[in-house]
Amino acid sequence: MKELSLNENDFRSFRDLIAKRSGIYFDPEKQELLKDNLLQRMADCGLSNFADYFNLLSSPAGDKEFDYLLNLITIPETYFFRDRGQFRALERFVIPELIEKKSYPGASLRIWSAGCSTGEEPYTIAMILAAGMVDMPIQILATDVSHDALKAAREGVYNGRSVRDMPQDYLNRFFTKKGEKYYLEDSIKQMVEFRYFNLVTEPYPLMEMSGWDIIFCRNVTIYFQAEATRKVIHNFHRSLREDGYLFAGYSESLRYMSNEFNTVQHEGAFFYQKGMPKKTVRKKTRKIRLRQGSTAPRAKKQGPKAVAGLKSDEVARICARAKKLLEMGQPEGASEILSPYLQESSTPGSVLLLQAEIALNQGDLEKAVHLCERILQGEPLSIAGHYLLGVVYLTWEDEGRAIEEFKKVLYLEPEHALARFNLGELYSQVGRLDEARLEYANVARLLEKMPGSLDERFAGGFSPALLIDTCLSRIRALEAKPRGTAGRRWDGAKRREGE
């Protein structure tokens, strides 16, 4: 059966059927992956050609088989405390704010984990609430389209990979280890209700699917087409209470999908709040604490953004002179022009950015980090500041911090090809091969449509065509690796330094 060929017409038929019924869309480069999944299910059904299997899926009796196929193709990478910055924001800002607002009798806290997979995300939320001893009724609903994933979630038994990034105190408090498995405490399992729900095909908000304070839907809509994603995001907006919060994955920016939410930034983590569209908000840690207490650090003060008496056209002339010297191979001269302005507490971000670039090129990484931090203190949503900081951590081989910075770039600018390419390189290094393939494919697709989106200033000699060829070559190399092959592992402890 492996010799069967899935032609273009058959591929489109299966792709469209799956997209219509689940929202999951297979791009052309995933044709072989879809073929492998189809062949596995065909063998289980005793069928020998694609036409017969398509007829089975399309028939009234094919609903159960479609569930089996969906279980096979929806196996995302997930683990406890994934994207820890968002959970830190949940604990230090969102929950305390909601508790403060809900001081009236009978108030409750309602959280929906949409696309929960095998339960790591909703159980992480439950553990945070349990550790904080929130003194009000709590409802955590977790939904998914995979019956197998929901069954595994209800069991609450995990391997070492799932708990690899969990704080040790949580692991000791909420899990019992037996052999190589980790068993979640019943008290946490009982906090979460698991239910089947299809975000694309089922109508909502129904009465019970509305009035949520918080919705988590991360790394789910990346498999959807834009139209389906817009529909889901709009339904989330309708499902949330006023001023409710939506947590999306780093590659699921709402920038071009919805204007119904405000972007919120808290200690480097990005999420969204329902409300009248306005500019991005930078949230500080709340003084109110969970009943057990919290050790949230003070938020950094935002510095002024312009040197007193220095006009914008003067700044532009200074930077232009420094850039010209840098292009002529005279970084020392460029740095000499900029240095008088670096002593000011309100140095313009463009000056700091150029000096950070010079420091990076000269190998002075500590200075580059210091300058990037100054940029982000005054302008926390600086795309270039986060990108350069990611490059510094990449040079330092601190994969965890580099990944976090490049993910922040993509929250702010999903079409940032170089950030996606660097993420692909990092994921490949640490053994997250499926995610590496996805990022390389995203870069190739992006540059084919928008070659001008490549910031050649930081491209290191790559042209759009060369970067596309490089990504396609990387994908072929990864496809040649057998499943389970891993690169250099990412030590989660390294990422946790400084938290």
Layout of SSEs?
Blueprint: H1 8-22, H2 31-45, H3 50-58, H4 63-73, H5 84-101, E1 109-114, H6 120-132, E2 138-144, H7 147-155, E3 157-158, H8 168-174, E4 175-178, E5 181-184, H9 186-189, E6 192-196, E7 212-217, H10 226-239, E8 240-248, E9 261-266, E10 269-274, E11 281-282, H11 312-327, H12 331-342, H13 349-361, H14 365-378, H15 383-395, H16 399-412, H17 417-429, H18 433-449, H19 464-480, H20 492-496
Helix pairs in contact: 1-3, 2-4, 11-12, 11-13, 12-13, 13-14, 13-15, 14-15, 15-16, 16-17, 17-18, 18-19
Whole-number count of domains: 4
Beta-strand fraction estimate = 5-15%
Structural class: alpha/beta
Mean pLDDT score: 80
**CATH topology annotation of the largest domain:** Rossmann fold
**CATH top level class name of the largest domain:** Alpha Beta
Q: N- to C-terminal separation?
A: 51 Å
Gyration radius over CA: 24 Å
Provide the helix percentage. Answer: 40-55%
* CATH architectural type of the largest domain: 3-Layer(aba) Sandwich
**What summary fits the major beta sheet?**
8 strands, mixed
Instruction: Give the spatial strand order of the biggest sheet.
Output: 6-2-1-7-8-10-9-11
Shape: globular
Name the poorly predicted regions.
287-309, 484-499
**In CATH, what is the homologous superfamily of the largest domain?**
Vaccinia Virus protein VP39
The total of beta strands comes to: 11
Q: Helix count?
A: 20
